[in-house]
Amino acid sequence: MKKPSSKIREEIARLQEQLKAAETREAERIGRVALRAGLGEIEIDEGELQAAFEQVAHRFRGGTGAATGKKNAGDGRPSSASATKDETGAAPSGASEA
């Protein structure tokens, strides 16, 4: 028997809340690491900082692509803090807000 649309909507809402909570935990974790590394004290353009984070992400994924610091740069995923996480469980960016 198929689920009624109201049950599907409830499930979607519940999953969106879970996603939001997971992204918040990931952003806070990366933000804490960035602050401990001293990134909070560096005056740097957000695009440059994002490009540097993308380079780090490529390094740990084993990729070789160049970082651009632009949203939707090459892999089709948004690069905001609400972006989906990569295979390692780390958010692709978002620590630039920390």
Brief descriptors of the model:
98 residues, mainly alpha, 0% strand, elongated
Helical content stands at 40-55%
Please give the radius of gyration in angstroms.
Answer: 16 Å
Give me the secondary-structure category.
mainly alpha
Total number of helices: 2
**What are the segments in which pLDDT stays under 50 over at least 5 consecutive residues?**
72-98
Content of β-strand:
under 5%
Q: SSE order, as H and E?
A: HH
The overall average pLDDT, rounded, is: 77
Shape: elongated
Instruction: Report on the biggest sheet.
Output: none
What is the CA–CA distance across the termini? Answer: 47 Å
DSSP strand tally: 0
Task: List the SSEs and their pairings.
Elements: H1 5-36, H2 46-61
Compact overview of the structure:
By secondary structure, the protein is mainly α. The protein has helices spanning 5-36, 46-61.
What does this molecule look like?
- The protein has 98 residues and is an all-alpha fold.
- Helix content is 49%, strand content 0%.
- The chain has 2 helices and no strands.
- The longest helix has 32 residues, at 5-36.
- The protein starts with a helix and ends in a 37-residue tail after the last helix.
